[in-house]
Specification:
The complex is a heterodimer of chains A (259) and B (354).
Chain A: E1 7-16, E2 19-29, E3 34-38, H1 45-52, E4 60-65, E5 68-69, H2 75-81, E6 83-85, H3 98-105, H4 114-119, H5 122-141, H6 158-170, E7 176-180, H7 188-203, E8 207-211, H8 215-221, E9 224-229, E10 232-237, H9 239-244, H10 246-253
Parallel strand pairs in A: 3-8, 3-9, 6-7, 7-8
Antiparallel strand pairs in A: 1-2, 1-4, 4-5, 9-10
Helix pairs in contact in A: 3-6, 5-6
Chain B: H1 3-17, H2 22-45, H3 52-74, H4 83-99, H5 104-126, H6 131-151, H7 153-156, E1 162-163, E2 169-170, E3 173-174, H8 182-200, H9 203-213, H10 215-220, H11 225-251, E4 253-254, H12 261-274, H13 279-300, H14 303-318, H15 332-340
Antiparallel strand pairs in B: 1-4, 2-3
Helix pairs in contact in B: 3-8, 3-11, 3-12, 3-13, 4-5, 4-6, 4-11, 5-11, 8-11, 9-11, 12-13, 13-14
The chains are: A alpha/beta (259), B mainly alpha (354).
Chain lengths: 259, 354
């Protein structure tokens, strides 16, 4: 086992003008672990994701990925350090095919110079062939193995688009995967398939972070849960601990989560 | 519109967009080959003395359209000053030929190189701004180059322009008549089409389209957005530099009149008309433009501008993806080979070979 956490958030605070979006947030995510982040709307979950992935650049505190500080790095460098994410509202590349979306996720793993790209050298063909095989494997893994790789990404049904976005993130071969409300808009059956897939992702040794509103999904797959409210961590622990925490019940879960 | 006419119109529009049946596609391919051969040889069997400029201009505008297509069609950067790089290529050739005795062949890489350097210098600070702001800045750049061409008399000859260099030669053949440049310009179109299409189907081309579709998601996929925009700008301007040098050599005169805002506007119009992101579209757009703006205007005068504008409007309204829309190319052979190699593998890992 690694002693070092994959992702370590230490005392992170973010302010937007007078609003404190995140206040002194600290937690860690280890390899082979699914960490859920829950909280009411406006609790700072998406701000947390945006800060970790480099879209919010001004913050206090420290974020380390595999022990390396991420401060000041632009999003694409953070991807190179091993972080990949999906978005709450699906953000696929709409004029690219299914295959090209996954290949775009592999951007940092395809070794081509501009000359290779322009002249289609043997190296270009080698790299593209390898990348295509990798992409097909990823598509197969997320359950899109039977989908036409040449179809436009936006022609897929909604649930498949969610999967494709996860495939694109996995294609970056990340060390940490962040999923922003992956079950949003899915029906019950699709949600459970998704939960199964996230467990399979964990089994490969990835550290998974998950923002999700579907409590059944969160409670069933997360190893640990961090609860945010008004930008603060009000509780963290196993699903059972969090569910029993009176502060959490008051802030968010309400009566519905009581057994 | 009455019901019947409306229905007929709707059917016409639907038919325009529907994919072709296989037999028709084969026919279309054959027709394309015939058209290409026809255009390549037309000036010779149509009689070269008749409007010889038109053929070379078509090829040069096609090159411009193909190059600008990289910037606008692939990367989604609205560039309203593209012809500035055409001007740079032209003036580099004129200066090199007049004052340094360089031949066209030595000047072509020089013109392309300087166009690329200029695009890097301009692109580096400006590509940080997006959309409309970028359009305004490129518009300004085009304007600056035009004004510089008019006033930097020492290197551009001012309003009178530059002329009087010795005609370029290759293998003992002198390039004097406009038509002498036709094979060269045609070769440039072929190279530009092959290279830009090649780029589109590679890592860099995908990155461009990602940036066009969604900058945030592109960055989150590991793409260095600003750097790749700069690449698009630079790899787009090469072709303008080359075409500009051939243009100057063909005209045997170069003056600021060729590089007004209108020129840059028509370059954009060619890309929009043909189909954003579609290399074949850029070529067809250029043919339409030259036929209307040069050939037809000889008969209709300024009315040809109205005709071109009307055509542009009709296309934008009823065929918004352009005359020949870009169709994503699927690497079927690569996919089949991947399947033969025994894919996909087990579902317990997304990484290959587990």
């Amino acid at each position: 086992m690694e002693s070092e956490p994959r992702l370590a958030i230490r005392g992170v605070s973010v302010r937007f003008g007078g609003v404190e979006a995140l206040a002194d947030v600290s937690f860690e995510v280890g390899a082979g672990e699914i960490l859920g982040v829950i909280g009411p709307n406006g609790a700072g979950k998406t701000t947390l994701f945006n800060t970790i992935s480099g879209l919010v650049r001004r913050y206090e505190g420290e974020i380390h990925l595999d022990g390396r500080p991420l401060r000041g790095l632009p999003p694409q460098r953070i991807v190179a350090h091993g972080l990949a994410r999906t978005f709450q509202n699906i953000r696929l590349f709409k004029s690219l095919t299914v295959l090209d979306n996954v290949l775009a996720g592999q951007h940092r793993h395809i070794v081509e110079t501009v000359l290779d790209s322009a002249l289609h050298t043997p190296r270009y063909h080698r790299e593209e062939a390898l990348a295509t095989r990798r992409a097909l494997q990823v598509l197969h893994f997320v359950g899109l193995g039977a989908t036409d790789p040449g179809a436009l990404a936006t022609s897929l049904p909604y649930g498949a688009q969610r999967r494709l976005e996860i495939a694109r993130a996995l294609a970056a071969y990340p060390r940490v995967l962040m999923l922003d409300e992956p079950a949003a808009g899915l029906n019950t059956g699709e949600s459970w398939e998704l939960a199964t897939m996230i467990r399979r992702i964990r089994a490969t040794g990835l550290a998974v972070m998950l923002v999700e509103h579907d409590m059944r999904v969160v409670m069933s797959i997360c190893d640990r849960i961090v609860v945010l409210n008004f930008g603060r961590v009000i509780a963290q622990g196993t699903p059972a601990q969090v569910r029993a925490d009176p502060a959490v019940v008051a802030a968010y879960l309400g009566d519905a989560a009581q057994p | 519109m009455t019901g019947g006419a409306g229905r007929a119109w709707g059917a016409l529009r639907a038919g325009w967009r529907a994919p072709l049946p296989p037999r028709a596609r084969l026919g279309l391919r054959a027709a394309t080959v015939v058209a290409c051969v026809g255009f390549a040889t037309a000036p010779y069997w149509l009689g070269g003395s008749y409007y010889p400029d038109i053929w070379v201009d078509m090829a040069l505008w096609a090159t411009v359209g193909l190059g600008l297509n990289v910037v606008i069609g692939f990367a989604g950067l609205l560039d309203l000053g593209y012809m500035a790089f055409y001007a740079i290529g032209g003036y580099v050739f004129a200066n090199a030929a007049l004052y340094h005795g360089l031949t066209l062949w030595e000047t072509l890489p020089l013109g392309a190189g300087l166009a690329v350097i200029a695009s890097a210098v301009i692109g580096f600070p400006t590509l940080r701004v997006r959309g409309d702001y970028l359009a305004i800045m490129t518009l300004g750049f085009g304007g600056i180059v035009y004004v510089a061409a008019k006033n930097l008399t020492l290197v551009t000859g001012g309003d009178n322009g530059l002329y009087g260099w010795r005609a370029p030669t290759l293998l003992g053949i002198q390039f004097v008549q406009p038509l002498d440049f036709y094979p060269l310009a045609l070769g440039l179109v072929v190279v530009t089409a092959l290279v830009t299409t090649g780029l589109r189907g590679s890592r860099i081309g995908r990155a461009w389209v990602c940036i066009k579709d969604d900058e945030l998601a592109a960055a989150a996929s590991g793409i260095a957005v600003i750097r790749y925009k700069l690449y698009a700008y630079m790899l787009g301007s090469v072709w303008a530099g080359l075409a500009g040098a051939i243009f100057a050599a063909k005209q045997s005169l170069i003056s600021p009149q060729s590089f007004t805002f209108n020129a840059s506007f028509f370059a954009v119009a060619i890309v929009v008309l043909g189909g954003m992101g579609s290399p074949a579209g850029a070529i067809v757009g250029a043919i339409f433009y030259v036929v209307i703006a040069e050939w037809l205007s000889a008969y209709t005068g300024t009315l040809s501008g109205v005709i071109f504008a009307a055509l542009l409007l009709v296309v934008v309204l009823f065929r918004p993806a352009g005359l020949i829309p870009y169709r994503p190319r699927v690497p079927r052979r690569r996919l089949r080979r991947a399947e033969r190699a025994g894919l996909p593998g087990a579902t317990d890992d997304y990484r290959l070979g587990v």
